[in-house]
Every structure is written in structure tokens, then in C-alpha cells.
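Q: Got a minute? One more chain.
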Amino acid sequence: MSVKAKPATPEEALDPARALVPSVQRVNEVRVQRGFWPKIRRTASKIPFAGQALSVWFAARDPETPAAAKGIMLGALAYFVLPVDAIPDIFAGIGFTDDAAVIGALIATLGANIRKRHREQAAQALERLRQD
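A: Always. Here it is, folded:
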């Protein structure tokens, strides 16, 4: 992020209309880089959509994924990572339903950008996480 760039608020970072704004995209990228693996490690055995979240992660990091798709993927992953949530994750049973809905909607709209290799990388990573 440049020195003159105004940091995005959580609301701005999660606004789909702003997902492709470069400053918002960069903020989301940093948040996801810092928070994705710690959160997925804590939750992989608890959430049924961990494999899908991981495949989105690998697709978002792939240089062959189009920039527009990456921006939206990073926004969805930032929503998963951020503690500010429509339904806080601390509520057992329902806390991750909003995160699952966001990841599911992303896959429904941008699933063509999630390649077989991303799903395979996700399956391998999930297996390693569940063994730990």
C-alpha cells in the first residue's frame, strides 16, 4: 500500500462494490496473508467448507488467476479471516454459516477460476492440517 493510500475500513474491505479498488484489494491481500493460515489451522476440523476455503486460497495466489477474480477471492477470504462478522464465529453451530455462504457464493460465481490443481492442493493441505 502506498504512503498516500487511505487504509480501508473493514466495511470498505468487505464491500463487493469496492473489491477491485487497488487499495482495498491490497488491504485484503495483507489481511488474508496474515490471518488465513492461523484461522484455517484452528477451524479446519470444525468447518465442513475448509477444503473450499483452501481451494480459494490457492486460486487467489495463482499468477494465472485473473486479477478481477483474485480481488473478489481476497475479499471473500478477508471476510473469513476478519473477526468482524455478520454472525460471530464464537457461536457454536451457526457462527460459520455466514462464512460458508460467502465462500459458497464465490465458488458458484467464480468456480471456473478454481482449477483442479487448486482443489488438489487444498485436499493435500487439509489432510496435513487434520493430521496435526
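A: The chain has a mean pLDDT of 83.
Q: Perfect, thanks.
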